[in-house]
Amino acid sequence: MSGHAIDPALYRDRDAVPVRRALISVSDKTGLLDLAEALSAAGVEIVSTGSTASTIRDAGFSVTDVSAVTGFPESLDGRVKTLHPGIHAGVLADLRLESHEQQLADLGIAAFELVVVNLYPFVETVASGAAAPAVVENIDIGGPALVRAAAKNHANVAIAVSPASYAQIVKSLTLGGTTLAQRQRLAGEAFAHTAAYDTAVAAWFAENVGVRADHAAAGTEAGTEAGTEESRVGFPEHVALEGDRLATLRYGENSHQAAALYASPAGTGIAQAEQLHGKEMSYNNYVDADAALRAAYDFAEPAVAIIKHANPCGIAVASPDAVDAIADAHRRAHACDPVSAYGGVIAANRPVTRAMAEVVKDIFTEVVIAPAFEPEALEVLTTKKNIRLLVLPGGFARPTQEVRQVSGGLLVQEVDSFDAFSSEGWTLVAGPEADAATRADLEFAWRACRSVKSNAILLADGGASVGVGMGQVNRVDSCHLAVTRAGERATGSVAASDAFFPFADGLQVLLEAGVRAVVQPGGSIRDEEVVAAATAAGVTMYFTGERHFFH
User: Which helix H or strand E contains 283, and what residues bound it?
Assistant: First the structure.
């Protein structure tokens, strides 16, 4: 439905709008009193709500309660405060129109030229782990309505949704009022703010409040296979991305591409990392650091992953008897492919120690990211001017869903959370049962293989990768690559394949290199041929029943 049509000739030009009356209702009180002081000094009438009004009044500034304007008390535990014509008419009146000005006069309602609103801390409440009732109570209703009303009426009203905007508002008080260009810019920020807020609420509902049950019911009523599939994954009808811009990067994947970093509300990962030292992070640094975190944090044991171009060139866990576990894990990961590790990104799932730092400082490394750095480790690494050192103040957690942009839309999938890395659920299909050490290596290889781009083959020995074949368009080439990189270390290693062997030729490459055991999903129409090759070689082979494609 289209909006109301008004003859453009009736509009009067209005650029500078002096601020005479302001409505303020904020959850975040940052900068509030400085703003109130400036408004009071400029003779601006301040109308406010609840705790915001109390804060302003307690500081000695004059303030009018919203209830005095509406003639209606705040009610329902504060759920109803500003939802009243006495407020919204003053925000929405388009004073470029004489008819709107006359209607306000007839109704005895004064206009607002400034609205300052930030919303209930919904995202922060979710991040705190609060129970559902508390989360729901922090869904703002009146706030977004005011923000959108003021933003729509930016021809007459300035809307500030962030304390970062207060300085420009204060400056405008001394310059005769807010300008149209300023109000337009603030309106754009306001609409982005409410859009992000609504997206966060919708995302929480999609994950937490009955979406799966609703979809299941819809599928049952329709009696369709599609409905059943929808209920299985619980995807909402609509999805939107949101994030706050943290940085504009020097460039993107290549120097001719612009790029920026955005952080998801309540996210826990590379976007929230704090940089302690080194050059500015690049787009590719962030991509590689994220891949490194995913690989290192796939393990409960002390682990290190070294990444180059989003692929591992070394993953290892510490030896059980290591004196310095994380230093040992790094040494073993680096030994997998020292050539590729040059210029790589390192992630550790434990604090970086001085012993690890002493080794890293002599290796050209772009980024080191970890939950913390020991003070002595920082002393060592900060002697290298350019190395980027990042910490994860909130830790690391895989998202529940992953989003990938495609032309014309988005692909959304559940994160690969198939955690059957224990050999207890595997099926022995060839060779003798593996001993405890071999089982441990197979489990390590199967877990580490998840971080390698398909087609993926990973050779491991003693809890460390010794050869990685990744990203090839056929599995035979990946096998050759893994064996070539492992060299003599291939003999006696174990192998993991992220998907089944379609023919025995890829497996044969591994067998000829001296691999002692293999783990793979199985499921090929030629499984018998592949199993027969392993049996003939006397090599142990397990099927997991699930693959780990990573494109």
Answer: helix 283-296
